[in-house]
């Protein structure tokens, strides 16, 4: 084992500590705390765990957490009506509707109903368009968390070869946009990519977001590369990533573990996006780059 282990959990904790200070400064200026509304539909146990830990982290940072639980059988119109109320609520700076939603609900319709300026997940097409065209908006939490870890380790990313494996709207596509914005040479690989091992082998930065346990092999990794594992796969041997960790750690320069890598960053960035939203909505200025 030669790779440095990137401690996302420690990084996220330190970041949340700095955020709490900035939340207090916002609250003093605006005479209110930033507010995050989280909507959970149904009783999926994994989703319930995430929503609970989001609520805890929100309160620990000094923000207000508004939690809404709806039964799995709720009508789409009822969910949309809740989104409308949250859009109109001045105490709510950020809205997160936990995905996946039950099969009878069209996720695109729900996401598109969220006010783009409260869409702290960055899933609304308006925010995807803003990211793609370099406008200010909200960037999805997981890819932004990955970028923070990469910049912390590598500094300037300009000119580096980056491969993103996975093309979802939530991780792969926004991750590729962010890396392009940092002037990386970006390749997006996916299930139809031919000779994936050769594509991965030329990368200085590998971001794995495919959702297949241990799919990315150590022999594919260029010696010294930085490997970011977004995978959260529940298997018989517990939680594992999309990367064969033991194999990759013997060749990579640095690698994120699962758990304790990208996951905790996702929640920290959610709080960060909510604080940014509060600043914008209350017209309280903040120092660029401080958040
Ligand atoms: N609208 C919406 N926004 C989301 O951001 C969203 C979502 N829906 N649906 C589900 C996924 C998943 N997700 C995670 C957040 C934190 C960890 C996390 O903190 N993981 C820890 C512990 C994991 C564990 O022990 O289960 C770790 O990786 O170390 C993981 C996954 C956010 N998601
Ligand atoms: Mg659905």
From TrEMBL:
Gene3D superfamilies: Leucine Dehydrogenase, chain A, domain 1 (3.40.50.10860), NAD(P)-binding Rossmann-like Domain (3.40.50.720). Its EC number is 1.5.1.5, 3.5.4.9. Residues 6-121 form the Tetrahydrofolate dehydrogenase/cyclohydrolase catalytic domain. NADP(+) binds at residues 166-168, 232. GO terms for molecular function: methenyltetrahydrofolate cyclohydrolase activity; methylenetetrahydrofolate dehydrogenase (NADP+) activity. It comes from the Bacteria. It catalyses: (6R)-5,10-methenyltetrahydrofolate + H2O = (6R)-10-formyltetrahydrofolate + H(+); (6R)-5,10-methylene-5,6,7,8-tetrahydrofolate + NADP(+) = (6R)-5,10-methenyltetrahydrofolate + NADPH. GO terms for cellular component: cytosol. Residues 140-280 form the Tetrahydrofolate dehydrogenase/cyclohydrolase NAD(P)-binding domain. GO terms for biological process: L-histidine biosynthetic process; methionine biosynthetic process; purine nucleotide biosynthetic process; tetrahydrofolate interconversion. Pathway: One-carbon metabolism; tetrahydrofolate interconversion. Keywords: Amino-acid biosynthesis, Histidine biosynthesis, Hydrolase, Methionine biosynthesis, Multifunctional enzyme, NADP, One-carbon metabolism, Oxidoreductase, Purine biosynthesis. Homodimer. Belongs to the tetrahydrofolate dehydrogenase/cyclohydrolase family. Catalyzes the oxidation of 5,10-methylenetetrahydrofolate to 5,10-methenyltetrahydrofolate and then the hydrolysis of 5,10-methenyltetrahydrofolate to 10-formyltetrahydrofolate. This is Bifunctional protein FolD. It comes from Sphingomonas alpina.
